[in-house]
Amino acid sequence: MGAPSKAASVARTPTYILFCLLALVSLTSVFLYKLDRFAAHTKTVAGHNLEPTPWHLFPPKNFLEEARHARIYKIIQCSYLTCPYANDTFFKRRHSESSRPASKCPDFFSFIRRDLEPWARTMIKMDHIMAAKNFAAFRVVIFEGKLYLDLYYACVQSRMMFTIWGLLQLLNKYPGMVPNVDLMFDCMDKPTLSKTEHRDFPLPLFRYCTTENHFDIPFPDWSFWGWPEINIRSWEEEFRDIKKGSQGRSWARKWPRAYWKGNPNVVSPIREELLKCNHSRKWGAQIMRQDWGEEAKAGFERSKLANQCDYRYKIYAEGYAWSVSLKYIISCGSLALIISPQYEDFFSRGLVPRKHYWPVSPDKLCRSIKFAVDWGNANPSEAQAVGKAGQDFMKSLNLDTVYDYMFHLLTEYSKLQDFIPVPPPSALEVCPDSLLCLADQKQKEWLQKSISFPSPRPPCTLRPTDADFLKNWAQNKQRVIEDVREMEKLES
Ligand SMILES: *[C@@H]1O[C@H](CO)[C@@H](O)[C@H](O)[C@H]1NC(C)=O
Ligand SMILES: *[C@@H]1O[C@H](CO)[C@@H](O)[C@H](O)[C@H]1NC(C)=O
Protein backbone atom coordinates (compact mmCIF):
# COMPACT_ATOMS: atom_id res chain seq x y z
CA MET A 1 0.00 0.00 0.00
CA GLY A 2 1.59 3.29 -1.15
CA ALA A 3 -0.91 5.80 0.25
CA PRO A 4 0.53 6.27 3.76
CA SER A 5 4.08 6.83 2.45
CA LYS A 6 2.77 9.29 -0.16
CA ALA A 7 0.84 11.13 2.54
CA ALA A 8 4.00 11.22 4.60
CA SER A 9 6.03 12.71 1.75
CA VAL A 10 3.33 15.29 1.09
CA ALA A 11 3.42 16.20 4.75
CA ARG A 12 7.16 16.78 4.48
CA THR A 13 6.88 18.93 1.33
CA PRO A 14 6.99 22.65 2.07
CA THR A 15 3.59 24.22 1.48
CA TYR A 16 4.87 26.73 -1.07
CA ILE A 17 5.93 23.95 -3.44
CA LEU A 18 2.50 22.37 -3.10
CA PHE A 19 0.96 25.72 -3.83
CA CYS A 20 3.11 26.14 -6.92
CA LEU A 21 2.20 22.69 -8.16
CA LEU A 22 -1.48 23.38 -7.69
CA ALA A 23 -1.19 26.69 -9.49
CA LEU A 24 0.69 25.03 -12.35
CA VAL A 25 -1.94 22.32 -12.70
CA SER A 26 -4.76 24.78 -12.74
CA LEU A 27 -2.93 27.13 -15.12
CA THR A 28 -2.27 24.23 -17.47
CA SER A 29 -5.86 23.15 -17.43
CA VAL A 30 -7.03 26.71 -18.03
CA PHE A 31 -4.53 26.92 -20.86
CA LEU A 32 -5.68 23.61 -22.36
CA TYR A 33 -9.27 24.68 -21.98
CA LYS A 34 -8.56 27.96 -23.75
CA LEU A 35 -6.61 26.17 -26.45
CA ASP A 36 -9.52 23.82 -26.94
CA ARG A 37 -11.95 26.74 -27.25
CA PHE A 38 -9.56 28.53 -29.57
CA ALA A 39 -9.23 25.49 -31.84
CA ALA A 40 -13.01 25.02 -31.79
CA HIS A 41 -13.39 28.50 -33.24
CA THR A 42 -10.71 28.16 -35.88
CA LYS A 43 -12.19 27.40 -39.27
CA THR A 44 -9.99 25.60 -41.74
CA VAL A 45 -9.76 24.98 -45.46
CA ALA A 46 -10.25 21.29 -44.64
CA GLY A 47 -13.69 22.16 -43.24
CA HIS A 48 -13.09 22.18 -39.46
CA ASN A 49 -15.73 24.12 -37.51
CA LEU A 50 -17.76 24.96 -40.59
CA GLU A 51 -21.41 24.21 -41.35
CA PRO A 52 -22.54 23.23 -44.86
CA THR A 53 -23.85 26.06 -47.04
CA PRO A 54 -27.53 26.66 -46.11
CA TRP A 55 -28.43 27.09 -49.81
CA HIS A 56 -27.15 23.63 -50.65
CA LEU A 57 -27.04 21.20 -47.77
CA PHE A 58 -24.85 18.12 -47.68
CA PRO A 59 -23.69 15.79 -44.92
CA PRO A 60 -21.21 17.72 -42.73
CA LYS A 61 -17.62 16.55 -42.51
CA ASN A 62 -16.67 14.33 -39.70
CA PHE A 63 -13.24 14.76 -38.16
CA LEU A 64 -13.92 12.49 -35.23
CA GLU A 65 -11.64 9.75 -36.53
CA GLU A 66 -8.73 11.74 -35.11
CA ALA A 67 -8.26 11.86 -31.38
CA ARG A 68 -9.45 15.18 -29.97
CA HIS A 69 -6.10 16.44 -28.76
CA ALA A 70 -4.49 15.47 -32.07
CA ARG A 71 -7.16 17.46 -33.90
CA ILE A 72 -6.65 20.50 -31.68
CA TYR A 73 -2.92 20.32 -32.14
CA LYS A 74 -3.28 19.98 -35.90
CA ILE A 75 -5.69 22.91 -36.26
CA ILE A 76 -3.44 25.23 -34.27
CA GLN A 77 -0.19 24.02 -35.75
CA CYS A 78 -1.42 24.25 -39.35
CA SER A 79 -3.43 27.46 -39.06
CA TYR A 80 -1.14 29.64 -36.96
CA LEU A 81 2.33 28.12 -36.79
CA THR A 82 3.05 27.04 -40.34
CA CYS A 83 3.00 29.95 -42.81
CA PRO A 84 5.21 32.26 -40.71
CA TYR A 85 7.96 29.63 -40.82
CA ALA A 86 7.42 28.25 -44.31
CA ASN A 87 10.52 28.12 -46.49
CA ASP A 88 9.40 29.69 -49.72
CA THR A 89 12.78 30.99 -50.89
CA PHE A 90 12.45 28.86 -53.98
CA PHE A 91 9.20 30.50 -55.01
CA LYS A 92 10.50 33.98 -54.36
CA ARG A 93 12.90 33.53 -57.22
CA ARG A 94 11.67 35.36 -60.27
CA HIS A 95 12.65 34.64 -63.80
CA SER A 96 13.79 37.60 -65.84
CA GLU A 97 10.72 38.51 -67.78
CA SER A 98 12.28 38.33 -71.20
CA SER A 99 13.53 34.76 -70.83
CA ARG A 100 10.81 33.50 -73.18
CA PRO A 101 8.26 35.35 -75.28
CA ALA A 102 4.59 35.41 -74.34
CA SER A 103 2.10 33.62 -76.53
CA LYS A 104 -1.35 34.88 -77.51
CA CYS A 105 -4.17 33.74 -75.22
CA PRO A 106 -6.82 31.40 -76.67
CA ASP A 107 -9.87 33.15 -78.11
CA PHE A 108 -12.17 32.06 -75.33
CA PHE A 109 -10.26 34.27 -72.84
CA SER A 110 -12.33 37.09 -74.38
CA PHE A 111 -15.21 35.91 -72.21
CA ILE A 112 -13.36 37.26 -69.17
CA ARG A 113 -14.30 40.80 -70.14
CA ARG A 114 -17.87 39.80 -70.87
CA ASP A 115 -18.15 38.18 -67.42
CA LEU A 116 -16.90 41.39 -65.79
CA GLU A 117 -18.92 43.71 -68.02
CA PRO A 118 -21.64 44.36 -65.34
CA TRP A 119 -19.06 46.32 -63.29
CA ALA A 120 -17.26 48.05 -66.13
CA ARG A 121 -19.03 51.35 -65.44
CA THR A 122 -19.95 51.13 -61.75
CA MET A 123 -16.63 49.56 -60.70
CA ILE A 124 -16.54 47.04 -57.86
CA LYS A 125 -17.02 48.76 -54.52
CA MET A 126 -16.74 47.43 -50.98
CA ASP A 127 -20.58 47.49 -50.90
CA HIS A 128 -20.60 44.94 -53.72
CA ILE A 129 -18.23 42.66 -51.83
CA MET A 130 -20.20 42.90 -48.60
CA ALA A 131 -23.49 42.18 -50.37
CA ALA A 132 -21.95 39.23 -52.25
CA LYS A 133 -20.87 37.81 -48.89
CA ASN A 134 -24.47 36.67 -48.30
CA PHE A 135 -24.04 34.22 -51.16
CA ALA A 136 -20.46 33.15 -50.50
CA ALA A 137 -18.81 30.20 -48.78
CA PHE A 138 -15.51 32.01 -48.45
CA ARG A 139 -13.65 35.19 -49.21
CA VAL A 140 -10.20 35.24 -50.79
CA VAL A 141 -7.92 38.22 -50.37
CA ILE A 142 -4.65 38.18 -52.23
CA PHE A 143 -2.41 40.81 -50.73
CA GLU A 144 1.20 41.36 -51.73
CA GLY A 145 1.54 37.86 -53.10
CA LYS A 146 0.02 36.16 -50.06
CA LEU A 147 -3.37 34.52 -49.82
CA TYR A 148 -5.77 35.21 -46.94
CA LEU A 149 -8.91 33.21 -46.45
CA ASP A 150 -12.04 34.19 -44.55
CA LEU A 151 -14.30 31.16 -44.15
CA TYR A 152 -18.09 31.20 -43.78
CA TYR A 153 -19.32 27.74 -44.79
CA ALA A 154 -17.94 24.31 -45.59
CA CYS A 155 -17.83 23.09 -49.18
CA VAL A 156 -18.75 19.57 -50.19
CA GLN A 157 -15.86 17.06 -50.09
CA SER A 158 -12.42 18.59 -50.72
CA ARG A 159 -13.37 21.11 -53.38
CA MET A 160 -12.47 24.13 -51.24
CA MET A 161 -9.06 22.73 -50.43
CA PHE A 162 -8.31 21.96 -54.08
CA THR A 163 -9.60 25.33 -55.28
CA ILE A 164 -7.41 27.24 -52.82
CA TRP A 165 -4.49 25.01 -53.75
CA GLY A 166 -4.98 26.08 -57.38
CA LEU A 167 -4.78 29.74 -56.35
CA LEU A 168 -1.64 29.11 -54.28
CA GLN A 169 -0.02 27.41 -57.25
CA LEU A 170 -0.90 30.42 -59.39
CA LEU A 171 0.99 32.57 -56.88
CA ASN A 172 3.95 30.16 -57.13
CA LYS A 173 3.88 30.25 -60.90
CA TYR A 174 3.80 34.02 -61.30
CA PRO A 175 5.56 35.38 -58.20
CA GLY A 176 5.03 39.09 -57.70
CA MET A 177 2.65 39.33 -60.65
CA VAL A 178 -0.78 38.43 -59.30
CA PRO A 179 -2.49 41.69 -58.27
CA ASN A 180 -4.15 42.40 -54.92
CA VAL A 181 -7.76 41.23 -55.05
CA ASP A 182 -10.68 40.82 -52.68
CA LEU A 183 -13.31 38.38 -53.91
CA MET A 184 -16.25 36.30 -52.72
CA PHE A 185 -16.52 32.66 -53.77
CA ASP A 186 -19.29 30.09 -53.60
CA CYS A 187 -18.22 26.53 -54.16
CA MET A 188 -21.61 24.89 -54.70
CA ASP A 189 -22.90 23.93 -58.12
CA LYS A 190 -25.68 26.23 -59.21
CA PRO A 191 -25.37 29.91 -60.11
CA THR A 192 -27.46 32.03 -57.74
CA LEU A 193 -27.31 35.64 -58.93
CA SER A 194 -30.08 35.91 -61.49
CA LYS A 195 -29.77 38.84 -63.88
CA THR A 196 -33.41 39.80 -63.44
CA GLU A 197 -33.48 39.64 -59.65
CA HIS A 198 -30.17 41.46 -59.21
CA ARG A 199 -30.52 43.79 -62.20
CA ASP A 200 -30.31 46.97 -60.13
CA PHE A 201 -27.25 45.93 -58.17
CA PRO A 202 -25.23 43.15 -59.81
CA LEU A 203 -23.03 41.27 -57.34
CA PRO A 204 -19.64 39.83 -58.21
CA LEU A 205 -19.43 36.23 -57.02
CA PHE A 206 -17.01 33.58 -58.22
CA ARG A 207 -18.07 29.97 -58.70
CA TYR A 208 -17.45 27.12 -61.09
CA CYS A 209 -20.11 27.89 -63.68
CA THR A 210 -22.66 30.41 -64.86
CA THR A 211 -25.46 30.79 -67.39
CA GLU A 212 -26.46 33.54 -69.79
CA ASN A 213 -28.99 34.65 -67.18
CA HIS A 214 -26.66 34.90 -64.20
CA PHE A 215 -24.02 37.32 -62.98
CA ASP A 216 -21.93 34.55 -61.36
CA ILE A 217 -18.33 34.63 -62.63
CA PRO A 218 -16.99 31.23 -63.76
CA PHE A 219 -13.65 30.09 -62.38
CA PRO A 220 -11.73 26.82 -63.04
CA ASP A 221 -13.13 24.08 -60.83
CA TRP A 222 -11.21 22.02 -58.26
CA SER A 223 -10.98 18.93 -60.45
CA PHE A 224 -8.14 20.49 -62.47
CA TRP A 225 -6.02 19.80 -59.37
CA GLY A 226 -7.80 16.54 -58.58
CA TRP A 227 -10.85 15.00 -56.99
CA PRO A 228 -9.56 12.35 -54.59
CA GLU A 229 -13.03 11.23 -53.43
CA ILE A 230 -13.70 9.68 -56.82
CA ASN A 231 -10.08 8.95 -57.65
CA ILE A 232 -9.69 11.61 -60.35
CA ARG A 233 -6.13 12.91 -60.47
CA SER A 234 -4.88 16.27 -61.66
CA TRP A 235 -6.01 17.28 -65.13
CA GLU A 236 -2.60 16.83 -66.76
CA GLU A 237 -2.27 13.27 -65.50
CA GLU A 238 -5.82 12.38 -66.52
CA PHE A 239 -5.48 13.93 -69.96
CA ARG A 240 -2.24 12.07 -70.65
CA ASP A 241 -3.79 8.73 -69.71
CA ILE A 242 -7.08 9.34 -71.51
CA LYS A 243 -5.22 10.26 -74.68
CA LYS A 244 -3.11 7.13 -74.40
CA GLY A 245 -6.25 5.06 -73.74
CA SER A 246 -7.93 6.60 -76.79
CA GLN A 247 -5.18 5.27 -79.02
CA GLY A 248 -5.88 1.68 -77.99
CA ARG A 249 -8.32 1.22 -80.85
CA SER A 250 -8.29 2.67 -84.36
CA TRP A 251 -11.36 4.67 -85.38
CA ALA A 252 -12.61 1.75 -87.49
CA ARG A 253 -12.35 -0.60 -84.53
CA LYS A 254 -14.11 1.65 -82.04
CA TRP A 255 -17.71 0.62 -81.29
CA PRO A 256 -19.95 2.57 -83.69
CA ARG A 257 -22.22 3.66 -80.83
CA ALA A 258 -22.77 6.63 -78.55
CA TYR A 259 -21.67 5.92 -74.99
CA TRP A 260 -22.48 7.58 -71.71
CA LYS A 261 -21.55 6.52 -68.22
CA GLY A 262 -22.49 8.59 -65.23
CA ASN A 263 -24.80 9.17 -62.34
CA PRO A 264 -28.38 9.80 -63.47
CA ASN A 265 -29.63 10.46 -59.93
CA VAL A 266 -28.49 14.07 -59.60
CA VAL A 267 -31.79 15.89 -60.21
CA SER A 268 -30.96 16.32 -63.87
CA PRO A 269 -33.97 16.07 -66.22
CA ILE A 270 -31.70 15.56 -69.21
CA ARG A 271 -29.93 12.58 -67.67
CA GLU A 272 -33.27 10.98 -66.83
CA GLU A 273 -34.36 11.51 -70.40
CA LEU A 274 -31.11 9.98 -71.59
CA LEU A 275 -31.88 6.67 -69.86
CA LYS A 276 -34.71 6.20 -72.37
CA CYS A 277 -32.21 6.16 -75.25
CA ASN A 278 -30.44 3.05 -73.96
CA HIS A 279 -30.86 0.84 -77.00
CA SER A 280 -27.92 0.16 -79.25
CA ARG A 281 -29.93 -0.98 -82.30
CA LYS A 282 -32.81 1.46 -82.06
CA TRP A 283 -30.92 4.58 -80.94
CA GLY A 284 -27.28 3.67 -81.41
CA ALA A 285 -26.67 4.50 -77.77
CA GLN A 286 -25.41 2.75 -74.67
CA ILE A 287 -26.23 4.44 -71.39
CA MET A 288 -24.53 3.12 -68.26
CA ARG A 289 -25.17 3.89 -64.64
CA GLN A 290 -22.21 4.84 -62.48
CA ASP A 291 -22.57 3.89 -58.85
CA TRP A 292 -19.77 5.70 -57.03
CA GLY A 293 -20.26 3.67 -53.87
CA GLU A 294 -19.75 0.44 -55.81
CA GLU A 295 -16.85 1.90 -57.80
CA ALA A 296 -15.08 2.97 -54.64
CA LYS A 297 -15.39 -0.54 -53.23
CA ALA A 298 -13.97 -1.99 -56.45
CA GLY A 299 -10.96 0.35 -56.28
CA PHE A 300 -12.25 2.52 -59.16
CA GLU A 301 -10.96 -0.05 -61.67
CA ARG A 302 -14.12 0.07 -63.75
CA SER A 303 -14.51 3.85 -63.69
CA LYS A 304 -11.05 4.61 -65.08
CA LEU A 305 -11.60 7.40 -67.57
CA ALA A 306 -8.87 6.14 -69.87
CA ASN A 307 -10.83 2.90 -70.43
CA GLN A 308 -13.90 4.70 -71.72
CA CYS A 309 -12.62 5.77 -75.12
CA ASP A 310 -13.51 2.64 -77.07
CA TYR A 311 -16.63 4.19 -78.60
CA ARG A 312 -16.80 6.40 -81.67
CA TYR A 313 -19.28 8.72 -79.97
CA LYS A 314 -19.32 9.99 -76.42
CA ILE A 315 -22.34 11.76 -74.97
CA TYR A 316 -22.10 14.75 -72.64
CA ALA A 317 -25.15 15.46 -70.48
CA GLU A 318 -25.21 18.14 -67.80
CA GLY A 319 -25.76 17.05 -64.24
CA TYR A 320 -27.22 19.12 -61.43
CA ALA A 321 -25.41 22.04 -63.10
CA TRP A 322 -22.31 21.95 -65.33
CA SER A 323 -20.35 18.71 -65.10
CA VAL A 324 -16.62 18.25 -64.70
CA SER A 325 -16.95 15.23 -67.00
CA LEU A 326 -17.00 17.45 -70.11
CA LYS A 327 -13.23 17.74 -70.33
CA TYR A 328 -12.68 14.00 -69.94
CA ILE A 329 -15.33 13.16 -72.53
CA ILE A 330 -13.90 15.47 -75.19
CA SER A 331 -10.36 14.26 -74.43
CA CYS A 332 -11.19 10.80 -75.80
CA GLY A 333 -10.88 12.02 -79.38
CA SER A 334 -14.20 10.33 -80.10
CA LEU A 335 -16.91 12.53 -81.60
CA ALA A 336 -18.40 14.28 -78.56
CA LEU A 337 -22.18 14.53 -78.73
CA ILE A 338 -22.99 17.49 -76.53
CA ILE A 339 -26.61 17.88 -75.47
CA SER A 340 -27.15 21.68 -75.59
CA PRO A 341 -25.90 22.79 -72.21
CA GLN A 342 -27.61 25.37 -70.06
CA TYR A 343 -24.58 25.98 -67.85
CA GLU A 344 -21.19 27.16 -69.00
CA ASP A 345 -17.86 26.77 -67.29
CA PHE A 346 -14.86 28.95 -68.08
CA PHE A 347 -13.58 26.97 -71.08
CA SER A 348 -16.66 25.30 -72.59
CA ARG A 349 -17.57 28.59 -74.21
CA GLY A 350 -14.55 28.15 -76.44
CA LEU A 351 -15.90 24.97 -78.03
CA VAL A 352 -17.28 25.41 -81.54
CA PRO A 353 -20.04 23.06 -82.80
CA ARG A 354 -19.05 20.83 -85.74
CA LYS A 355 -15.45 21.92 -85.23
CA HIS A 356 -14.89 20.41 -81.76
CA TYR A 357 -18.15 18.51 -81.11
CA TRP A 358 -21.55 17.59 -82.50
CA PRO A 359 -24.53 19.52 -81.08
CA VAL A 360 -27.38 17.28 -79.91
CA SER A 361 -30.87 18.62 -79.35
CA PRO A 362 -32.46 18.12 -75.92
CA ASP A 363 -35.90 17.88 -77.58
CA LYS A 364 -36.36 14.53 -79.29
CA LEU A 365 -33.15 13.52 -77.56
CA CYS A 366 -32.88 9.88 -78.66
CA ARG A 367 -33.65 10.82 -82.27
CA SER A 368 -31.00 13.53 -82.23
CA ILE A 369 -28.40 11.08 -80.87
CA LYS A 370 -29.37 8.51 -83.48
CA PHE A 371 -29.02 11.12 -86.21
CA ALA A 372 -25.52 12.05 -85.04
CA VAL A 373 -24.43 8.39 -84.90
CA ASP A 374 -25.77 7.71 -88.40
CA TRP A 375 -24.14 10.86 -89.74
CA GLY A 376 -20.81 9.90 -88.18
CA ASN A 377 -20.91 6.34 -89.47
CA ALA A 378 -21.70 7.66 -92.95
CA ASN A 379 -18.95 10.31 -92.78
CA PRO A 380 -16.19 8.60 -90.79
CA SER A 381 -13.27 10.83 -91.76
CA GLU A 382 -15.22 13.99 -90.95
CA ALA A 383 -16.44 12.55 -87.66
CA GLN A 384 -12.93 11.48 -86.75
CA ALA A 385 -11.55 14.94 -87.61
CA VAL A 386 -14.05 16.65 -85.32
CA GLY A 387 -13.18 14.19 -82.54
CA LYS A 388 -9.49 14.91 -83.05
CA ALA A 389 -10.05 18.70 -83.04
CA GLY A 390 -11.90 18.34 -79.72
CA GLN A 391 -9.02 16.34 -78.27
CA ASP A 392 -6.52 18.95 -79.52
CA PHE A 393 -8.60 21.69 -77.89
CA MET A 394 -8.40 19.85 -74.57
CA LYS A 395 -4.67 19.33 -75.03
CA SER A 396 -4.19 23.07 -75.43
CA LEU A 397 -6.18 23.57 -72.25
CA ASN A 398 -3.27 22.37 -70.14
CA LEU A 399 -2.70 23.63 -66.61
CA ASP A 400 -0.53 26.46 -67.97
CA THR A 401 -3.57 27.72 -69.86
CA VAL A 402 -5.77 27.28 -66.80
CA TYR A 403 -3.35 29.37 -64.71
CA ASP A 404 -3.23 32.01 -67.43
CA TYR A 405 -7.01 32.20 -67.41
CA MET A 406 -7.01 32.64 -63.62
CA PHE A 407 -4.28 35.24 -63.90
CA HIS A 408 -6.14 37.33 -66.46
CA LEU A 409 -9.49 36.99 -64.72
CA LEU A 410 -7.98 38.18 -61.42
CA THR A 411 -6.05 40.94 -63.16
CA GLU A 412 -9.08 42.29 -65.02
CA TYR A 413 -11.15 42.00 -61.85
CA SER A 414 -8.53 43.89 -59.84
CA LYS A 415 -8.65 46.77 -62.32
CA LEU A 416 -12.32 47.23 -61.46
CA GLN A 417 -11.86 47.37 -57.67
CA ASP A 418 -12.30 50.93 -56.48
CA PHE A 419 -10.83 50.18 -53.06
CA ILE A 420 -7.50 48.91 -51.79
CA PRO A 421 -7.85 45.23 -50.84
CA VAL A 422 -6.74 44.52 -47.27
CA PRO A 423 -7.20 41.16 -45.53
CA PRO A 424 -10.03 41.43 -42.98
CA PRO A 425 -9.09 40.74 -39.32
CA SER A 426 -10.96 37.43 -39.34
CA ALA A 427 -9.00 36.09 -42.33
CA LEU A 428 -6.03 33.75 -41.91
CA GLU A 429 -3.09 33.37 -44.22
CA VAL A 430 -3.01 30.11 -46.13
CA CYS A 431 0.21 28.94 -47.79
CA PRO A 432 1.02 25.63 -49.54
CA ASP A 433 2.59 24.22 -46.35
CA SER A 434 -0.37 25.10 -44.14
CA LEU A 435 -2.81 23.59 -46.62
CA LEU A 436 -0.78 20.39 -46.91
CA CYS A 437 -0.61 20.35 -43.11
CA LEU A 438 -4.42 20.12 -42.98
CA ALA A 439 -4.76 17.61 -45.82
CA ASP A 440 -5.26 13.92 -45.11
CA GLN A 441 -2.85 11.36 -46.56
CA LYS A 442 -4.66 10.84 -49.86
CA GLN A 443 -5.31 14.54 -50.39
CA LYS A 444 -1.67 15.28 -49.71
CA GLU A 445 -0.50 12.77 -52.32
CA TRP A 446 -2.91 14.25 -54.84
CA LEU A 447 -1.97 17.86 -54.13
CA GLN A 448 1.75 17.33 -54.24
CA LYS A 449 1.51 16.13 -57.81
CA SER A 450 0.34 19.53 -58.97
CA ILE A 451 2.89 21.82 -57.33
CA SER A 452 3.86 24.58 -59.73
CA PHE A 453 7.13 26.46 -60.03
CA PRO A 454 8.01 29.95 -61.20
CA SER A 455 7.28 30.13 -64.90
CA PRO A 456 10.10 30.94 -67.32
CA ARG A 457 7.46 32.54 -69.54
CA PRO A 458 5.08 35.41 -68.80
CA PRO A 459 1.30 34.80 -69.01
CA CYS A 460 -0.19 34.81 -72.50
CA THR A 461 -1.32 38.15 -73.88
CA LEU A 462 -5.01 38.93 -73.89
CA ARG A 463 -6.47 40.09 -77.19
CA PRO A 464 -7.69 43.70 -77.16
CA THR A 465 -11.36 44.29 -76.29
CA ASP A 466 -13.51 43.82 -79.34
CA ALA A 467 -17.28 43.88 -78.82
CA ASP A 468 -17.94 42.39 -82.27
CA PHE A 469 -15.74 39.39 -81.65
CA LEU A 470 -18.04 37.79 -79.09
CA LYS A 471 -21.16 38.80 -80.99
CA ASN A 472 -19.88 37.11 -84.15
CA TRP A 473 -18.81 34.13 -82.11
CA ALA A 474 -22.30 33.65 -80.67
CA GLN A 475 -24.01 34.18 -84.05
CA ASN A 476 -21.70 31.69 -85.71
CA LYS A 477 -22.40 29.09 -83.07
CA GLN A 478 -26.13 29.63 -83.37
CA ARG A 479 -26.01 29.28 -87.16
CA VAL A 480 -24.10 25.97 -87.06
CA ILE A 481 -26.54 24.53 -84.52
CA GLU A 482 -29.52 25.60 -86.64
CA ASP A 483 -27.92 23.96 -89.70
CA VAL A 484 -27.67 20.68 -87.81
CA ARG A 485 -31.32 20.98 -86.69
CA GLU A 486 -32.26 21.50 -90.35
CA MET A 487 -30.35 18.35 -91.35
CA GLU A 488 -32.23 16.41 -88.67
CA LYS A 489 -35.57 17.69 -89.96
CA LEU A 490 -34.79 16.69 -93.53
CA GLU A 491 -33.93 13.21 -92.37
CA SER A 492 -37.16 12.56 -90.49
C1 LIG B 1 15.01 26.96 -47.95
O1 LIG B 1 15.02 26.22 -49.17
C2 LIG B 1 16.15 26.46 -50.00
C3 LIG B 1 16.00 25.65 -51.26
O2 LIG B 1 14.73 25.74 -51.82
C4 LIG B 1 17.43 26.10 -49.25
O3 LIG B 1 18.56 26.39 -50.05
C5 LIG B 1 17.50 26.86 -47.94
O4 LIG B 1 18.62 26.44 -47.20
C6 LIG B 1 16.24 26.65 -47.11
N1 LIG B 1 16.26 27.48 -45.93
C7 LIG B 1 15.94 27.02 -44.72
C8 LIG B 1 16.01 28.02 -43.62
O5 LIG B 1 15.61 25.87 -44.52
C1 LIG C 1 -28.46 -0.20 -70.86
O1 LIG C 1 -28.46 -1.39 -71.58
C2 LIG C 1 -27.38 -2.26 -71.30
C3 LIG C 1 -27.44 -3.43 -72.27
O2 LIG C 1 -28.75 -3.88 -72.48
C4 LIG C 1 -27.45 -2.68 -69.83
O3 LIG C 1 -26.36 -3.52 -69.51
C5 LIG C 1 -27.41 -1.43 -68.98
O4 LIG C 1 -27.54 -1.75 -67.59
C6 LIG C 1 -28.50 -0.46 -69.37
N1 LIG C 1 -28.33 0.78 -68.64
C7 LIG C 1 -29.20 1.25 -67.76
C8 LIG C 1 -28.87 2.55 -67.12
O5 LIG C 1 -30.22 0.67 -67.47
From TrEMBL:
Residues 177-420 form the Glycosyl transferase CAP10 domain. Pfam families: Glyco_transf_90 (PF05686). Keywords: Membrane, Transferase, Transmembrane, Transmembrane helix. The chain crosses the membrane at residues 15-33. GO terms for molecular function: transferase activity. Belongs to the glycosyltransferase 90 family. PANTHER family: KDEL LYS-ASP-GLU-LEU CONTAINING - RELATED, PROTEIN O-GLUCOSYLTRANSFERASE 1. This is Glycosyl transferase CAP10 domain-containing protein. It comes from Erythroxylum novogranatense.
